[in-house]
Amino acid sequence: MPQDVCLVTGVGPGTGKALVERFAQGYRVAMLARNAQRLEEIEGATPNARGYACDVSDPAQLESTLAAVQAELGAPSVVIHNAVGGAFANFLELDPEVLNRNFQVNTMALLRLAQATAPAMIEAGKGAFLCTGNTSAYRGVENFAGFAPTKAAQRILCESMARHLGPKGVHVAFIGIDAVIDVPWTRKRFADKPDDFFCKPSDIAAECWHLAHQPRSAWTFNALIRPYGENWSVS
How far apart are CA 183 and CA 201, in angstroms? Predict the structure, then answer.
């Protein structure tokens, strides 16, 4: 049984599941998601993984869940904030409550996660905090008004965390995914695209594993990944 603990939020059928499967090869993994049934299925198929049903945008739920993880598994030495809230609308059409909801998932949950888990990493003098993002963190596309501002804030918060935690031995990295991720609904939407068009969740997870275990002499903060044939959305 591995001793170190990895916590992953936003465990769905794509990147989240792949992250759990990769990190369960060396960690006890705490999986957070709203869908309890999905967590049970992944837990049943993945040794060293335990599910915790939680809406990370709810401060009370998140606090109690993190306390349960600490009591049952121990303090995480790797945290991956993969949960995401998104919406498509221009700023005139956007319901402000949608923007606020996405901000709670993408940015405020990141803050609460870091405040709860970073102190133990600081005390240990080691650890990794990763956040998965996308090109919305770097640019404001017209119909992403309900999403891009929260992802940009998320990236900047990660940078603030990295500047504070890095000298204390804790690695923080932001992973921008400039790609369409290979999951069933994207395959259906982009049915005319070849396999090379999609970014595989297992490859994203492999890069996250690499970032979490980089030597201290060569840490990456801002990692942009994309399929080899992707037209660059950001540089």
Answer: 8
Tell me the residue length of the chain.
Answer: 235
Mean pLDDT of 179-198: 91
Token look-up 């401060």 returns 59
pLDDT tens for 77-120 read 999 999 999 889 999 999 999 999 999 999 999 999 999 999 99
Whether the Cβ atoms of residue 79 and residue 208 lie closer than 8 Å to each other: no
In the structure encoding, which two tokens stand for residue 66, read together? Answer: 């993190």
Alpha-carbon span 207 to 188, nearest angstrom: 26
CA–CA separation, 85 vs 101, rounded Å? Answer: 7
Question: Residue 218: its pLDDT value, please?
Answer: 97
pLDDT confidence of residue 1: 67
Pairing of strands 171-177, 180-181: unpaired
pLDDT-based confidence at residue 220 (cuts at 50, 70, 90): very high
